[in-house]
């Protein structure tokens, strides 16, 4: 009996034109900054005439708003999932840190734009983005507070702990490349272990 031929590898999903524009915009905003990127340059990256871009988007401001809010919404969605997770606070914090690293690896350009170009958002979008960020920070801080109250974590200043953890993973977006001799999972494990073992309460402390 003749063996069946091996299955073909899955075909990557084709991006819509709007998705392609957002993808290329993230790359350009990351490389040159929001202010240093023109719609003509973006159209060249996408491979269309500049005028036809407006069939898919309203403005450069809209691109920045969409990228920033997509990242903010991804973080908030993961926070809500983790808050419903049955388990100790330390494990929930570990899950959030892993998600930070995962998103930076999977969509580094968009995360970089949200981290560095958000100040260029128009006023209404800026207010929404800031509120989303505050909501996430409050939720993350609450997990640290629960961990301290329950004796899982050392009795440290919550704000210092929060922003130390968040700042400590920012470098991943700049450093990680697929050719690095480490898998994304190994990267998540290593960073979360390094950061959280110092925060974890030791037995008998």
Write the layout of secondary structure elements.
Elements (H helix, E strand, L loop, with lengths): L16 H16 L6 H8 L13 H24 L5 H18 L1 H9 L6 H27 L8 H11 L3 H4 L8 H14 L8
Helix pairs in contact: 1-2, 1-3, 1-5, 3-4, 3-5, 3-6, 4-5, 4-6, 4-9, 6-7
What characteristics describe this protein?
205 residues, single chain, mainly alpha
Brief write-up:
The chain starts with 16 loop residues before the first helix and ends in an 8-residue tail after the last helix. It has about 200 residues and is an all-alpha fold.
Molecular structure report:
It contains nine helices and no strands. The protein starts with 16 loop residues before the first helix and ends in an 8-residue tail after the last helix. It is mainly α and 205 residues long.
* pLDDT averaged residue by residue: 88
Low-confidence stretches: 1-12
Distance between the termini: 67 Å
Envelope shape: elongated
Largest sheet: none
What order do the SSEs take from the amino end to the carboxyl end, as H and E? HHHHHHHHH
Number of strands: 0
Q: List the total number of helices.
A: 9
**β content, as a range?**
under 5%
Question: What is the chains' assembly state?
Answer: single chain
Structural class determined from secondary elements: mainly alpha
